[in-house]
Design a protein that fits this description.
The chain has 300 residues and is an alpha/beta fold. The protein has a single domain, classed as Thiamin diphosphate (ThDP)-binding fold, Pyr/PP domains (Rossmann fold). The protein is 39% helix and 13% strand. The protein is built from twelve helices and eight strands. It is globular and about 60 Å long. The structure holds thiamine diphosphate, iron/sulfur cluster and magnesium ion (MG).
């Protein structure tokens, strides 16, 4: 079945009236992941934009049509471990155990519980929507925020000029846990995203599956909401966010033979407004080196 048929036939379990900003990548990712996983899903969404806007909404007027838990910012994977093991004991292998968590809840606060659950090979699909910051609390920097980004804790001024460090590349770190399945995906490449959610769900019946999804955030990144998919597409096209997957057959990189430059990717994104040529060059170097590492890992 084509990905369009999958999405056409699947029910959207997020009720109308969601209070996410217009053009929110996280909303599109949440809706798509849950459309693919279906009604037989228990989802854990830690505090963040998708818990606030997706589950609670305005005046508790909207929500999900499936069971949803909001664990703490730092314990999503251990919380879902309990849920997963309980369903396992009941013999309910038909139930999908899914996390949809922000980068703060995944790469920073929740990393200890995530790494531990991955190492134990707990049966779940953990999806991180990476908008490169703590958006729900006012756009603070996280460890996945790109170098040079203007955030509320890394302002542009006379002392610093945006975030000083390069981002932590979490998906590769996660793959090194020896997972059943690990992949990166982007809402600009829907067919690829849907296929990877399907593979992740299948793998979650055997052990831990991890999906790291690029999540454009017009409000925190300061660009027009209608540009969200273009921003995501350019992140992939520039190798700032390469698409790849890893399963029992090893790594597989989606080759990008004619990448656009990082300078082209950052154009028009407010949080990158003050990047100097040196910082752009340093991000380019990181993107090139990362792509090369993934290419070598994928070589047969
Ligand atoms: C231990 C702890 N510290 C701080 C908070 C406040 N808090 C709630 S949501 C959030 C931001 C989470 O960021 P992320 O996981 O990236 O999700 P996003 O808001 O970007 O969707 C923070 C800091 C909290 N809930 N728990
Ligand atoms: S702040 Fe960003 S991540 Fe949060 S709802 Fe708005 S667009 Fe989505
Ligand atoms: Mg975030």
């Amino acid at each position: 079945m084509s990905y369009i048929d999958v999405l056409r036939e699947a029910k959207d379990v997020v009720t109308p009236g969601m209070s996410a900003c217009q053009g929110c990548g996280g909303e599109l990712i949440l809706r798509t992941v849950l459309q693919v996983s279906g009604k037989n899903t228990i989802v854990g969404i830690p505090p963040g934009c998708m818990a606030g806007a997706g589950v609670v909404g305005w005046n508790y007027a909207n929500g999900l049509e499936i069971p949803v838990h909001i664990p703490l910012l730092d314990n999503t994977a251990s919380f879902l471990t309990g849920v997963s093991q309980m369903y396992e004991r009941k013999g309910r292998t038909d139930v999908n155990i899914v996390a949809v968590a922000g980068d703060g809840a995944t790469a920073d606060c929740g990393f200890q519980s995530l790494s531990a659950a991955a190492e134990r090979n707990e049966k779940m699909l953990y999806v991180c929507y990476d908008n490169e910051g703590y958006m729900n609390t006012g756009y603070q920097r996280s460890s996945t925020t790109s170098r040079g980004s203007r955030t509320s804790t890394t302002p542009i001024g006379s002392v610093i000029n945006g975030k000083q460090q390069h981002q932590k590349y979490l998906p590769l770190i996660m793959s090194m846990h020896g997972l059943e399945y690990c992949a990166t995906a982007s809402p600009s490449h829907m067919a690829d995203l849907v296929a990877k959610v399907q593979k992740g769900l299948a793998a979650s019946k055997k052990g831990f599956a991890y999906l790291h999804v690029f999540s454009p955030c017009p409000t925190g990144w300061a660009y027009k909401s209608e540009k969200a998919i273009e921003v995501a597409r350019k992140a992939v096209a520039s190798n700032v966010f390469p698409l790849w997957e890893m399963d029992e057959n090893g790594y597989k990189l989606t080759e990008n033979k004619n990448p656009i430059s990082v300078a082209e990717f950052v154009q028009g994104i407010g949080k990158f407004k003050n990047l100097t040529p040196e910082v752009i060059e340093s991000i380019q170097k990181v993107a090139d080196a990362r792509y090369e590492t993934l290419r070598k890992l994928s070589a047969k």
